[in-house]
């Protein structure tokens, strides 16, 4: 989680989202009852989704000052930028679903043609996380939402003819990653309904809650990826860690599950798609080198063939056309996401011409047209929805998100720098430099994950800091970040955790060597694991950091691992270490910021969602109490209707304004600094 994610659209899932799919009806005393039918008018979708009553008051604020009207006025345009993410295209490629916000939270909208108006379809109080058309229909869709950020996601079907919404899941478990069969008669998803911990694969007819049945019983994190064309088999991914996954093929009729990737060696199989005849799979994996690259798997022979082997970057995602002739995939080139196309008959690959620079994300082929939909993220424009015609080699922009009346020509695109760390490792970073000679105050933005990556996406607040406040922003990809090879990805695991903190110390050294940067006015900000990095940086470098903003961060690894949601605990232990092992427990206690609050001398602002299942609110509460007990002030914000980050506009605006007051105060930034 990074500054852009925190301010723009809430926090992405750090540490993996478990999901699962289909095989047989549940049985035995542990089997959950089928979800009760819940059908309501679409105008009451907020109630249908199980939305809790609106909180009696806004965020709980402690130690924070009033927000001046002058700052609200300065930031008003930046706070009113919007984005539009493509979530699906219709079978004929002529209609699109997008996720955007017109009110307080992100909802599903229909766009009938490039440039057409967005028609809102859902009206829940909480954000809708994803949506997809029912195959064969542009008048029915499914979508996923939770309540108050608790991430107990439920799956709903919306039929526009009759405007009816039906909840397909049980209303209490976590349900994610719904996947349709080609004929639209089966819907698979991952669910913790069986025991609240493991993700199994469930399958239903996608229309009636009572049809839901346990298909594949998993242990840990199981995710359905795709049905075979005949609907008889299901491709499933098991996630052990970001570096260790497996692929399975479940025969839903025979109720058998075959491991397509046997062996205990940690190999990452990030994404996969089945050929129309079911004989081959196209897989993004690091099985043959440092980077995640394309492979073709002959399923019967278990033979692997590299594809597009000359690309020295990670393949982030892939999508196969319905006819099986075109494989679209996204290459992560130093943070930028480029669309590539591969002809599966000739195996020739090319970059897609005519796609604007930025990050292509969320590929989705139309089922009956040579059209692929995606979102395009840019450092100087808000996210918008696009399609690409693979026959005409032409991109079309479907939305033009509001920029609050701001001139994008004033925005700053980052440059990519590298700086040496303590052991000689070169650390990449994005550098947003203000206009003028400086010296500029500095904000270091640390991403979460920890297997995340700082990427050049638009952040209105980042642009405000650079363009209006004259603050330089540095966004490092410290060791352990994704996108730079599997060796780099593993260099902060277990007992090496604080090596990534040393990378921040090395960045402070680099800042001190730049004439245009003011090493005496440095702040750090980060969320989730990035929040831990903020606190750890204040422990080790308080003499060189003026202020830290910590959002939903880890303050004690042991209490975090003991209290994070049970369904993700083992996944996090692979990355951080197992707190049940005495030696590791001692190490985790020793490196936890909570054990060293006496060394924190920098100003601190802590922000937290009360319903956070990933990093529980207790992590924020305990660091605030400890720092105050040590005799220092802390600004503190708790949003009662949020989880792992802020996704509702009122909460996001409040946090953004307070964070800017905090940074301007302690870094000497703002209008006065710009005038110097």
Can you put this structure into words, describing what you see?
The protein is of the alpha+beta class and 676 residues long. The protein has 13 helices and 38 strands. The longest helix is centred in the C-terminal third of the chain and has 19 residues, at 649-667. Residues 7-53 and 672-676 have low confidence and may be disordered.
**Cross-sheet strand order for the largest sheet:** 2-38-37-36-35-33-34-32-31
Regions with little confidence, pLDDT below 50 for 5+ residues? 7-53, 672-676
Q: List the total number of helices.
A: 13
Could you tell me the mean pLDDT? 90
Largest sheet: 9 strands, mixed
Q: How big is the Rg?
A: 24 Å
* Distance between the first and last residues' Cα: 33 Å
Number of strands: 38
**In one word, what is the shape?**
globular
The share of residues in extended strands comes to 25-35%
How does the helix and strand content classify structurally? Answer: alpha+beta
Helix percent reads: 10-25%
Short description:
This protein has about 675 residues and is of the alpha+beta class.
Task: Give the SSE layout.
Elements: H1 3-8, E1 38-41, H2 45-48, E2 60-62, H3 69-79, E3 84-89, E4 96-100, E5 107-111, E6 118-120, E7 128-133, E8 140-145, E9 154-159, E10 164-167, E11 175-180, E12 187-191, E13 200-204, E14 213-216, E15 221-227, E16 233-241, E17 244-251, E18 256-259, E19 269-274, E20 280-285, E21 293-298, E22 303-307, E23 314-320, E24 326-333, E25 336-343, E26 348-351, E27 359-365, E28 371-377, E29 384-389, E30 394-397, E31 415-420, E32 426-432, E33 440-446, H4 460-467, E34 472-476, H5 486-489, H6 497-512, E35 517-527, H7 529-541, E36 547-551, H8 557-563, H9 566-576, H10 582-591, E37 603-609, H11 617-629, E38 635-639, H12 649-667, H13 671-675
Parallel strand pairs: 33-34, 33-35, 35-36, 36-37, 37-38
Antiparallel strand pairs: 1-10, 2-38, 3-4, 4-5, 5-6, 7-8, 8-9, 9-10, 11-12, 12-13, 13-14, 15-16, 16-17, 17-18, 19-20, 20-21, 21-22, 23-24, 24-25, 25-26, 27-28, 28-29, 29-30, 31-32, 32-34
Helix pairs in contact: 6-7, 8-9
